[in-house]
Design brief:
This protein is mainly alpha-helical. It is globular and about 60 Å long. α17 packs antiparallel against α18. It has 18 helices and no strands. The chain is about 70% helix and about 0% strand. Keywords: DNA-binding, Transcription, Transcription regulation. It holds the Pfam family TetR_N.
Length: about 375
Amino acid sequence: MTAESTAAVRPRNRKQLIVEAAGRVFSERGYHAASMEEIATGVGITAAALYRHFPNKYALFAECANVMVDRLVAALDEVPPKAALAEVLAAVTRVTVAHRASGGVYRWEARYLNREDRQLLRTKFARVVRRVTDAVRREHPLPDEHLRAAAALGAIGSITMHRTSIAQRRVEDLLLASAERVAATDPAAAIGSARSVELPAQPVPRTRRAEILAAAILLFERDGFANVTNGRIAEAVGLVPSALYRYFPGKVDILAAACLQAAGLLAQAVEQNLHGVTDPHDAVVALAATYVAYSFEHTALTSVANAELVGLPTTLQRPLIDAQREHIAVWEQQLRLARPELDSRQARVLVHAGFGVVVEVGRRLRWRDSPDHRDAVAALLVGALGL
């Protein structure tokens, strides 16, 4: 084969195609579950050809984790320094929506980067946050501009974390409007009901199985599921590793039990706090306050469930996905009653945008729990929904 024919067969942007395919696989399956062979198949090349571009899976993963932030930085660099907030947020929205299938890597999987690469990623993302914060401060000189900027980015970034099918232009318009509302929301004008939320009691580990689950959740949250061994879990509860198998078939079953526990507690909380609420607007506000209170109360549990679900086998994922859908359906129904102009897909997109607000603002607050923090986050969530 001549050099000319080889060039015709091999696309010039093959490395870009590899990164896009890898980003999708890492987002869908998690870093450790993804394989170089699976990624190569997605590009239509052999694994050997893939290794000519990236020496190992970690190098490819690090590239994927950085590429979304690099795109955001590049898009914002093209926006004039004193541009209106809408123009700044629109640039972020266009990039995020265009790459929604691969753009979620940095939100959860970036914890698997080494310290140097993780710091580099944070530095890049800090540029994005600063640019949005400056625009928020100029246009809406209210308290907590850093929180409002993080919330706006959380609303936009939420599109990378779910698969609701909706036209690109429609979702861009929805997310941009949601982010603008959040940026204009005064978190100090608390909605108040966050202070009266009733949550199910934190499970007390009264059995050996419950002790194992509680210890594993803390380890998974701190170090990531893939980095925690059965030996470490057993050591945390004073057992030898082989004794774990009396209670769980394997480590993945401990993770599934943790995620199911999170889903069950949230369902109980929603049922308790919606009891007797008949007005749709009040119901959405109650849902917001409940979700925020739950997120602060069960931070380790929810972090593990959010971050590690993609790593579960399909058979173990199914009941968890069903529970998630039931939860979203409650939000969707109440939001559409409060905002009848929304169709079901628009409502789901906005609900996920609200969840994205909670994640990013909670992180910004380092999940330090207080009534004021809960009220502020709930107010931002409600703003994202357009109530």
